[in-house]
C-alpha cells in the first residue's frame, strides 16, 4: 500500500534531476565518428592517387579532371579536419587521468593521431592515411576497453 | 590522504518520509552513471538541505552531497566529498572513468553545496 503510494508520488510528481555526470548525457562520446572521417580521408587519398590524367589537348577531359581532383581534395581536407576534431574531443573531454594509468601511451597516441590528421590534409599520402586509420583503431580499442565493453572494430569499406 | 568513498546508502525510513512531508527533505532523481555502483540512473534520493547551513555542520570526507556546478549555473551534481582544501571541497564521482567532477572544475565552496544526501527514496 505504502509502496504503491510512493510509486504514485514518483510518477505524478517527478523529482528534479541531479547529474551524476555533468557533461551531457553519458555515451555521447564514440570513436566511430573519427573512424568514419578517417576512412573518408583514406578513400579520397586512394581516389586522388588513382585518378587518370586526361590526354593533352582534351579540354573537356582537363576540366572534368580538375573538377574531380578539386572535389576529392576538398573532401579529404574537410574529413581530415573532422577526424582531428573528433580525436581531440575524445582526448580532452572523455579521457581522464584515471585512463592514463590504464593506457600509459594515451597522450602519445592522441598526439600522433592529431599530427596524422594534419599530415593527411597537407599531403596526398597513402602511408599517412593508412597510419591514421591504424591510430584511430588503437583509440577505438582504448575507448571501449575503458568502458569495459567489447566493441569490434569494423570499417565501412 | 586516503579517499573515504561512500560504499553504502541506507533506504528511507518512516522518519525520513515524515521529514519529507514537512519539507525538511528534498527528493532528487539521479541521472548519469558516474555514481555507480552506489547509485544508478533513475534512483531517487532524499537530501537534507540544511545539513551544511548549521555552524557545526561542516561537510565530512565521504559525504554524499548535491552541489551546484561552479561554472554552469543551475546545474546540480551529485558527488562525494573526496577531500577538503583551503580553496573548498573537492568533489568526485564514484565511477571516475565516467565522471566530470572537481578534477575538471576544481574545488567548490560551501555555498555551492545544496545539501547532504541522507538516504535512498524509497
Automatic annotation (TrEMBL), chain A:
Coiled coil regions in record: none
Keywords: Oxidoreductase
Gene3D superfamilies: Nickel-containing superoxide dismutase (1.20.120.400)
InterPro entries linked: NiSOD_sf, Superoxide_dismutase_Ni-type
Tagged with keyword Oxidoreductase: yes
MF terms in GO: nickel cation binding; superoxide dismutase activity
Nucleus keyword on record: no
Enzyme Commission numbers on file: 1.15.1.1
Pfam family, one: Sod_Ni
Protein name: Superoxide dismutase [Ni]
Organism: Halomicronema hongdechloris C2206
Lineage per the UniProt record: Bacteria, Bacillati, Cyanobacteriota, Cyanophyceae, Nodosilineales
Amino acid at each position: 500500500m505504502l509502496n504503491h503510494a510512493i510509486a504514485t508520488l514518483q510518477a505524478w510528481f517527478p523529482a528534479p534531476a541531479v547529474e551524476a555526470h555533468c557533461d551531457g548525457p553519458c555515451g555521447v562520446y564514440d570513436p566511430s565518428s573519427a573512424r568514419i572521417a578517417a576512412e573518408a580521408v583514406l578513400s579520397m587519398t586512394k581516389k586522388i592517387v588513382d585518378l587518370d590524367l586526361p590526354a593533352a589537348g582534351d579540354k573537356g577531359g582537363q576540366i572534368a579532371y580538375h573538377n574531380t581532383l578539386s572535389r576529392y581534395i576538398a573532401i579529404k581536407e574537410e574529413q581530415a579536419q573532422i577526424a582531428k576534431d573528433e580525436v581531440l574531443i575524445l582526448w580532452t573531454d572523455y579521457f581522464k587521468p584515471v585512463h592514463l594509468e590504464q593506457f600509459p601511451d594515451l597522450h602519445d597516441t592522441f598526439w600522433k593521431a592529431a599530427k596524422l590528421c594534419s599530415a593527411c590534409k597537407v599531403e596526398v599520402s597513402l602511408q599517412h592515411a593508412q597510419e591514421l586509420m591504424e591510430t584511430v583503431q588503437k583509440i577505438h580499442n582504448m575507448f571501449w576497453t575503458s568502458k569495459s565493453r567489447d566493441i569490434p572494430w569494423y570499417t565501412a569499406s | 590522504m586516503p579517499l573515504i568513498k561512500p560504499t553504502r546508502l541506507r533506504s528511507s525510513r518512516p522518519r525520513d518520509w515524515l521529514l519529507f512531508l514537512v519539507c525538511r527533505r528534498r527528493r532528487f532523481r539521479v541521472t548519469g552513471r558516474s555514481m555507480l555502483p552506489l547509485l544508478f540512473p533513475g534512483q531517487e534520493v532524499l537530501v537534507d538541505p540544511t545539513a551544511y547551513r548549521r555552524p557545526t555542520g561542516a561537510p565530512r570526507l565521504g559525504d554524499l552531497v548535491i552541489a551546484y556546478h561552479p561554472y554552469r549555473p543551475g546545474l546540480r551534481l551529485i558527488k562525494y566529498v573526496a577531500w577538503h582544501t583551503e580553496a573548498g571541497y573537492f568533489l568526485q564521482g564514484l565511477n571516475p572513468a565516467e565522471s566530470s567532477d572537481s578534477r575538471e572544475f576544481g574545488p567548490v565552496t560551501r555555498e555551492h553545496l545544496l545539501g547532504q544526501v541522507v538516504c535512498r527514496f524509497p
